[in-house]
Amino acid sequence: MTNDIAIVVPVFNEKKVIKDFLHSLKKERPKDTIIIVNDCSTDNSGEILEQIDGIYLLTHEINMGQGAALQTGIEFARKLGLRYAVTIDSDGQHNPKDIKLFEETMKKGKYDIVLGSRFLGNAQNISFIKKIVLKMAIIFTWIISGIKLTDTHNGFRMIKISNKKFNITQNRMAHASEVIDVIKNNNLKYKEIPCAILYNEYTKQKGQKLLNSLNIILEILFKRLRV
To answer: Whole-prediction pTM value?
Structure first.
């Protein structure tokens, strides 16, 4: 028996961890609908995913980026008639146990979106440089959007997708800043809650590089100048 929650997981080249991650996710959230979006992985992640039961598997024939993968999953969840979507990374840095707090917070406070924050929770083994980059992103987003958060580039969140105003148009990693714009432009009710982030050698390797973070800022500025 399922409930009204979809868990949307974008996947790109996660053959080393995806099977174990989904095992822990299914064990922790057996009643949720799990939607995997394979964003044209070039390793054998797709073959591994095809062997896993109890999930919906969607595939992008070309690599479109994390933002596009999330939107694909959210649109599919809406077609299934589900009310909420949890977005979570597939590299194992997020803990599925935290979803319970997202759900409790969302439904008790009747929020439109609940955002995870590593700086309210526990960011294990975060590097000094990574912390500085993330803090700079917080300031940048505050200046651009007027919304001050403690963590603006955390992919762990829960969204009331029955609210059709929430949509992602930024295909790649700039979607994290776009989410803040969606909150502001549509006056969505939101709340930040603590969540754990595990930084190990694998998740550090898969994470955003400093140069790419700067490219995201430039992408956001370019989009605003065109508006």
So the answer is: 0.86
Phi-psi category of 54—alpha, beta or left, where left has phi over 0 and alpha has psi -120 to 50?
left
Return d(Cα 112, Cα 166) in angstroms, integer. Answer: 9
Task: Please tell me the total count of domains within the chain.
Answer: 1
Neighbour order of strands in the sheet with 190-198: 56-59, 33-38, 5-11, 84-87, 157-160, 113-124, 190-198
Which DSSP category does 14 fall into?
-
For residue 96, the domain's CATH number is 3.90.550.10
User: Where does the chain have alpha helices with state H?
Assistant: 18-28, 45-50, 66-79, 99-109, 128-145, 175-185, 201-206, 210-226
**DSSP bridge partners of 33:** 6
**Per-residue pLDDT tens digits for 97-117:** 999 999 999 999 999 999 999
Domain range holding 20?
Answer: 5-226
What is the pairing mode between strands 113-124 and 190-198? parallel
pLDDT in tens, 38-85: 999 999 999 999 999 999 999 999 999 999 999 999 999 999 999 999
